[in-house]
Amino acid sequence: MICGENFPGALLGKHSPVGFYATRFVEAASSDDAEALALDQLRNEDELNIPAELRSEDARVFFEEITEINADSERLPNSGFTFFVMGS
């Protein structure tokens, strides 16, 4: 589970900073490699494409949970976010 915090509210048309939760599936040799691959996926997501002038210096992304699954497990598409207004 990936969590983002203190992203510009402009992502959702809000004035307050927003956060998000997301799940991404990657194939990796280690949890460190999995984090790097998932972070690369997020960097390429259109939903998080923020103009430089709107970016927040205190925005951050962290991994709440990394779970190894069987290679033949059903996987949901690697897209989508659950957004929330910070402090709510």
SSE blueprint:
Elements: E1 2-7, E2 18-22, H1 31-43, E3 60-63, E4 82-85
Antiparallel strand pairs: 1-2, 1-3, 2-4
Brief summary:
With 88 residues, the protein is of the alpha+beta class.
Describe this structure in words.
The protein is α+β, with helices and mostly antiparallel strands and 88 residues long. It has a domain at 1-15 and 27-71. It has one helix spanning 31-43, and strands at 2-7, 18-22, 60-63, 82-85. A 4-stranded antiparallel sheet has the order 3-1-2-4, with no helix packed on it. The longest helix has 13 residues, at 31-43. It starts with a strand and ends with a strand. The model has no long low-confidence stretch (mean pLDDT 91).
Supply the key terms.
single chain, 1 helix, 4-stranded antiparallel β-sheet, 88 residues
Q: Tally the beta strands.
A: 4
Backbone CA Rg: 14 Å
Tally the helices.
1
Distance between the termini: 20 Å
Shape: elongated
Order of helices and strands: EEHEE
Mean pLDDT: 91
Q: For the largest beta sheet, what order do the strands appear in spatially?
A: 3-1-2-4
Q: Note the beta-strand portion.
A: 15-25%
* Most strands sheet: 4 strands, antiparallel
